[in-house]
Design goal:
Elements (H helix, E strand, L loop, with lengths): L1 H13 L11 E4 L2 E4 L5 E2 L1 E5 L20 H12 L5 E4 L9 H9 L3 E5 L16 H14 L5 E8 L11 H17 L7 E5 L6 H9 L10 E5 L13 H7 L7 E6 L11 H5 L8 E6 L12 E4 L2 E4 L1 H10 L41 H9 L3 E3 L8 H8 L10 E2 L4 E2 L7 H15 L13 E3 L2 E3 L1 H10 L23 E3 L27 H9 L14
Parallel strand pairs: 4-5, 4-11, 5-6, 6-7, 7-8, 8-9, 9-10, 10-11
Antiparallel strand pairs: 1-2, 2-3, 12-13, 14-17, 15-16, 18-19
Length: about 550
């Protein structure tokens, strides 16, 4: 019977062309999702959809499932047979084309929630930062997908803070949400929700949900997902912990859903939790969930197995299909959305388990970093490997203040240049050291690691650099939208003599990884920020 259903859906998919109407967008009002066309409530019936290897080539660290049109065509009938209306993808390649897959998903009635990060560009819980490179990555994804009406929303992070020891990472994720929302608005794109996906840590789950849901509309998350694996095997609404979680999230002012679920400690998974999730005890608080996951891999969470491009459904697929087709959740109307569900939520107080500051990092601005870099006399030499930056940082920051480039998500103190590249940041503190030593040419050498250049400050840079101050700890209004005039006129230049001919050129165009994160030790800060991290935090599946 199931095979007949999949075959019928597959044949039907062949006759769905571009003439089919686009899916209506999904709106957020209060703590629920609604169809934009008729105002009826939208429940997520989702499946996580990303394999460890598909269209990867040498040097790539992840596949992009939405860039593989053949695989999409192969898999969509199986997703449709599960009554799937949402897939979640964890990493996207912005250099590839996604048109075929996105149009096929749209025709099949399937929306997409996409993570904005990718393995090499994500907010690292151990050394959190919100940098120019990260900002550019996130908005590149937005630029690529904003035109598809079946993009339900974006995740700005996944399990970045995962216990009480790294709550200082959450301000950086919330800053990403703020800046992506503003970017969407400034570009005149449709209002695409931006949210966060958390883990289920007993100490942080409640304050973290409140943290991302609190504040003004332009700062808070638009929705909140929690990766929930509490219901294992045969259980109940009460015994599983679902009753407690529902009570804890009952006052959340934004939509909440399970961004992953499906414990596999007992196999096969019979998905008895589905009837509870979409039942009357939970639907006033939860908007459905996303089953982890479509592809069978070594972690044994798959609904199907794909071998030599052939799909075989597994036992979990049949059990989930049976459960999801038996749900009949109550449906609210946008016209009756509770005013209490749209009220502002107080941000959580700091305490033993929650130490995230409500003050957020500044919006990354590449123009400001360029202004700062050009204004310096002493800079890091262009031939210095970024792996060697740590030694220079450790030495210089032991003598001069490096507050202008550091960021602390616990105290809420962020240097004006904390989002700049490591090269620009190192040049900034080398120049501070150079000036502190009386601008002696010997103070800008470091065994050839630093060199002198002719400092240039454009007129459009002067006022903002002055407001920020020489140590980079001040602030200036309008920095987030600050741009450098393309005209070269009106600039001032100061030269610095050098004891050698090698001391008069460098470049600030080289970018590298994430910038400075927050930590108690400067040595740890710079070590964490500029070496390759073996395991990147905040990504919800194993990358090849």
């Amino acid at each position: 019977m199931l095979l007949k259903r999949i075959t019928a859906l597959s044949l039907a998919s062949l006759f769905v062309g571009k003439a089919a109407a686009e899916l209506p967008t999904i709106d957020v009002v209060g703590n629920k999702f609604y169809y934009s066309t008729n105002g009826s409530q939208f429940y997520i019936k989702g499946v996580a959809y990303q394999a460890d290897s598909a269209n990867t080539t040498s040097g790539e660290s992840f596949n992009d499932p939405l860039a593989d049109a053949d695989s999409c065509a192969r898999d969509i009938p199986y997703l449709q047979a599960l009554d799937t209306n949402v897939i979640r993808v964890y990493a996207l390649n912005t250099s590839l084309d996604h048109t075929s897959c996105m149009e096929a998903l749209d025709a099949a009635g399937i929306y997409v929630i996409a993570d904005l990060a990718e393995p090499s560009l994500s907010i690292n819980r151990d050394s959190p930062s919100w940098t120019v490179d990260l900002y550019n990555r996130y908005v590149d994804v937005v630029d690529l997908f904003h035109n598809y009406t079946n993009v339900l929303g974006f995740f700005a992070g996944n399990e970045v803070t995962n216990n009480a020891s790294n709550t200082d990472a959450s301000p950086f994720v919330k800053a990403a949400i703020r800046d992506v929302k503003k970017y969407i608005s400034d570009k005149g794109y449709r209002s695409i929700p931006v949210g966060y996906s958390s883990n289920d840590d007993e100490h942080t789950r409640v304050p973290m949900a409140d943290y991302f849901a609190c504040g003004d509309e332009d700062v808070k998350a638009d929705f909140y997902g929690i990766n929930m694996y509490e219901w294992c095997g045969s259980s109940s609404f009460t015994a599983s912990g679902y009753a407690d979680r529902t009570k804890e999230f009952s006052n959340l002012s934004i939509p909440a859903f399970f961004s992953e679920y499906g414990c596999n400690e007992v196999q096969p998974r019979k998905f008895e939790e589905v009837s509870a999730l979409y039942g009357s005890n939970m639907t006033s608080v939860w908007s459905g969930g996303i089953v982890y996951m479509y592809f069978e891999e070594t972690n044994k969470y798959g609904l199907v197995s794909v071998v030599n491009d052939k799909v075989s459904t597994l036992a979990d697929y049949s059990y989930y299909s049976s459960e999801i087709h038996n749900i009949s959740p109550s449906s609210a109307s946008i016209n009756t959305a509770s005013t209490s569900s749209t009220s502002s939520l107080a941000c959580p107080a700091t305490g033993s388990y929650w130490k995230a500051a409500t003050a957020l990092p500044p919006t990354p601005n590449d123009s400001l970093c360029s202004c700062m870099s050009s204004s310096l006399n002493c800079v890091v030499s262009s031939d210095v490997d970024s792996d060697d930056y740590e030694t220079l940082f450790d030495y210089v920051c032991g003598i001069v203040s490096c507050d202008g480039i550091t960021a602390n998500g616990t105290s809420g103190e962020y240097g004006a240049y904390s989002f700049c590249s490591p090269e620009e940041q190192l040049s900034f503190v080398l120049n501070l050291y150079y000036e502190a030593q009386g601008s002696s040419s010997s103070a800008c050498d470091f065994s050839g690691s630093a060199s002198l250049q002719s400092a240039t400050t454009k007129s459009s840079c002067s006022s903002v650099l002055s407001a920020i101050g020489s140590e980079g700890t001040g602030s200036a209004s309008g920095i987030s939208s600050f741009t450098v005039s393309s005209s070269g006129s009106g600039s001032s230049t100061s030269s610095a003599s050098s004891a050698s001919s090698s001391g008069n050129s460098t470049s600030s165009t080289k970018k590298s990884g994430a910038a400075v994160g927050s930590s108690a030790s400067l040595s740890h800060i710079f070590m964490s920020a500029f070496v390759t991290i073996a395991a990147t935090a905040g990504l919800g599946f194993v990358f090849a």
